[in-house]
Amino acid sequence: MRADAQANHDRLLAVAGAVITEQGVDASMRDIARRAGVGLATLLRHFPTREALLEALLRTSFDELTARAAEVETTSSPQDAVMLWLRDFVACTKNYRGVVTAMVKAIEDPESALHTSCVTMRAAGTRLLTRAQGAGVARTDIDGADLFALASSLAWLGDQPGLDARAERLFGVVVSAILTDRAV
After folding, report:
1. pTM of whole model > 0.90?
2. Closest CA to 68 of 132, 138, 128
3. What is the pLDDT of residues 32-63, one digit of tens each?
4. Strand partners, 179
């Protein structure tokens, strides 16, 4: 990529991150381009869809979350690993209001730019859950899709005005519902 194109790409990502943090994932692509000092066509050359832009913004966070799951799988007890992954998942989504909805849709849509990252992240959580189930410390009537849905619900709570104060208590409720050795 030419130096000027790379500079535009980097500036677009930085500005998009700030705008989406302020306005959520439905922020105007035109506003992002304007604030980055480029035309909409330039933005669309780099990121042809909103999902492509989100994928570029979130890829690092999702990759870190997947790597963190591998780390806690080997360094933490099975139940602590699940709890840590859930916390990390919720924290990963906090910066971008509305990202949970995009993630849930992407899991179901193989054509989505976010699909691979989301599926990989969900698989990491599934491995942790399966390990905890094998150790007898997690319910066996849930699977990785259920864990992802519960994690998404927890992330959604923190996204809602007025409910974020309940989010920590409800995190404990959800964890105690998944892990058989935890109580609220």
Report:
1. no
2. 128
3. 999 999 999 999 999 999 889 988 988 878 88
4. 138
